[in-house]
Amino acid sequence: MESLNTSAQINAPQAAILLFGATGDLARRKLYPALYQLYRQKKLHPSFFVFGMARRPMDDETYRALVAESLENPDEQFLRHCYYQSLDVERLEDYERLQRRLLDLEASAGTAGNRLFYLSIAPDHFEPLAHHLKESGLVETAGFRRLVIEKPFGYDLPSAEKLNRALCQVFQESEIFRIDHYLGKTMVQNIEVIRFANSIFEPIWNNRYIAGIQVTASESIGVEERAGYYDRFGALRDMVQNHLLQMVAMVAMEPPSRLETEAIRDEKVKVLNALRVLSGAEIDHALVRGQYVRGIVDGEIRRAYREEDGVDPRSTTETYVAAKIYVDNFRFAHVPFFVRTGKRLRQKITEIVVQFKDVPWNLYVKKSGRLEPNRLIIRIQPDEGIHLWLNTKQGGDRLRIAPVDMEVSRFTGIGFNSPEAYELLLYDALIGDSTNFTRWDEVAASWAWIDPIAKRFKEKGEDGLKFYPAGSMGPELADLLLSKEGLHWWEGTQA
Ligand code: NAP
């Protein structure tokens, strides 16, 4: 199945990939494997090199060994494209040294001065880094210069604005690629294709036929190594502000007039601007905030969030959020969107569930009782696929109606043999396609919606924080959000 992005046919230009944070977790787990896959698929131009930077001193050979460690069956040819220099992002003289070495490498590799700066480094460094890139002259180059920047993009709207102003002094908006790695997931890119390339959904994709929409992004892992960051940000900022609101935007957006980057982003930002802003007690009614306590996940006892290394034992940071959201426009007026995300939940799953309204008159009520509603499920991970639940007559019994799952997934042969999100996104950044990155106005609109909620959470502290056992699906109160609307969270087949 094709994705909205037709970039697969475009050849990536020659480029120097300048990676800040080259020894970090993200670089090792995601970026090197993604670059290697692109290399193996010949999606990288033969004239490319990866230039890693971090503070610790290392020569090229040691760096190549570090890169090789993160790859399956590493190829010596690929590793020869990798170079390293020790650099402290706060020290201007290190950038000047970098500039000198880069000019030599660019001349020998023939990368035409195209520079992709990838910031895989703690967010506190983003602003000084951009400033030093300018001061050292690194952004003055004969080819393109692009900035790929990891999340989080700010802590709230004012800090995001400040960061954006700093970046815009160095790069144009069209040169800034803000990563939301959910947008690199094949099934997230598929939302638009499912909606806009199939005539059966679009006519009923509105408040006349849809009863409610659920977006779930649950994780079974805890905070792992990232407690310092997480305890400051919490689930609302870490997941809802970016990934969940982006998925809501893609489900709710109008069809763009053209399949062009800005036309698509224009439609998404309209949705984000139409989110009903909540305040005060409205927030208490529409959101559930939870934190995990001890419990069992996958048969193992897991400690409470407050017992995790690096977490304040009195922390009131939420590790779970559920929210009822309204998109106040013609298409979706009065349709509740329920989003939820959390750590240490029963299972890792990301999916979108579109629940359609009941048939106007149930002919089968006497024999079968209540009919299950039709549901379209877009499973983003794991087992990515599309499921459509329909009511059908069961064999044998004359009028027994039961829901069946019409499943389209890789197991049924149609197959989405998806590349990793970072593979798609790195490739898009190299070819200059920013469709699957967030534009500044999308980020600003998301923070504008989040800020009053984050403020309320902070004011309330422990008051209203619901504790849930690790291994559950979150606080029970989250069920009430839906049952008030006559709905319930989709937990797989109800048959
Ligand atoms: P990390 O493991 O802590 O790595 C940080 C990197 O930055 C290391 O290479 C470190 O190497 C380098 N560094 C630290 N201070 C530096 C300085 N002053 N000058 C130059 N280099 C410096 O972080 P990470 O988990 O990879 O995360 C990187 C970015 O990706 C962050 O913005 C994070 O929010 C984002 N992100 C990460 C994940 C993930 O799964 N890890 C997911 C989503 C987003 P030295 O100590 O040798 O300098």
From TrEMBL:
Catalyzes the oxidation of glucose 6-phosphate to 6-phosphogluconolactone. The active site is at residue 243. Belongs to the glucose-6-phosphate dehydrogenase family. Its EC number is 1.1.1.49. Signal peptide: none annotated. Residues 19-190 form the Glucose-6-phosphate dehydrogenase NAD-binding domain. GO terms for cellular component: cytosol. This is Glucose-6-phosphate 1-dehydrogenase. HAMAP family: G6PD. GO terms for biological process: glucose metabolic process; pentose-phosphate shunt, oxidative branch. The lineage of its organism: Bacteria, Bacillati, Bacillota, Bacilli, Bacillales. PANTHER family: GLUCOSE-6-PHOSPHATE 1-DEHYDROGENASE, GLUCOSE-6-PHOSPHATE 1-DEHYDROGENASE G6PD. Residues 193-490 form the Glucose-6-phosphate dehydrogenase C-terminal domain. GO terms for molecular function: glucose-6-phosphate dehydrogenase activity; NADP binding. SUPFAM superfamilies: Glyceraldehyde-3-phosphate dehydrogenase-like, C-terminal domain, NAD(P)-binding Rossmann-fold domains. Substrate binds at residues 181, 185, 219, 238, 343, 348. Keywords: Carbohydrate metabolism, Glucose metabolism, NADP, Oxidoreductase. It catalyses: D-glucose 6-phosphate + NADP(+) = 6-phospho-D-glucono-1,5-lactone + NADPH + H(+). Gene3D superfamilies: Dihydrodipicolinate Reductase, domain 2, NAD(P)-binding Rossmann-like Domain. NADP(+) binds at residues 21-28, 55, 88-89, 151. Pathway: Carbohydrate degradation; pentose phosphate pathway; D-ribulose 5-phosphate from D-glucose 6-phosphate (oxidative stage): step 1/3.
